[in-house]
Amino acid sequence: MKELNFITSVLEEQVKGELRQQGIVVWLDKDGYYNTYVDDLIARYSRGEFFAPVVAFRGSYLEMLLALEPYGNGLDPEPLLIHLPGHTEETVRKTPILELYHAGYRFRKALDTLIREAATGRVTPAEIDAYLKNGISDLNSAEVWLESHLAQPQGGIAAYLNSLSLEWILDGLLGEEKVLQSKISDSSALDTLAQHLYRHTGLDQAFLQFFQGNKLLSFIDLGDAFAAWLMCVEYVNDLKRSPYLDTLKPLTRLSNPLRKACEQLINYLRQRHPEIYAIKATIVESHLEPELNAIRPEDLGKIDTFHREESIILESAVRSLLTGEWQKAMQWSDSRTETPSFWLERDRTRRLEWSLIRDAATLGCEIDKNGRSLKDIYTLREALEIYTQSAYAVDKAHRHLEQQRLKLLEPTLPHFAQLLEAADKLRSEYRNWADTLAQDFANICTRESFLPDDDLQQRTLYDQVVHPLTKTNKKVAYFLIDAFRYEMATELIAEFEDSGITVNLKGRYAELPTITAVGMNLLAPVHQFGKLSLANGEGFKGFKTGEYTVRKPDERVRAMSDKSIDNVSAGRRKVRGVSLAEICDRSTTSLKKSYSDANLIVVHSKEIDDAGEANVGLATFETWLQQIKSAWNLLKTIGINEFIFTADHGFLLQDQTTQEKPYGSKKDPNRRYILAADARLEEGMVVVPLNALQYEGQNNYLLFRKDTAIFATGNPGATFVHGGNSLQERVIPVLTVSHRYQSNLAMVKYLIEAKPEREIMGHSRIQVRIKPAPVAQGVLSFVTAKTINLALRVPERPDIQIIIKDAPGAEVKNQQIEIPVGGDWIEVLFDLKGQRDERERIEVFHPDNIEDVEPLIPQTYFNVSGSLQNASSPVTESSRGTNWQDSFEDEAIRNVFLHLQQHSSITEMELTQMLGSARQVRRFSVEFEEHLKKVPFSVIIETTSNGKRYVKQS
Question: What is the DSSP letter of 935?
Answer without folding.
Answer: S
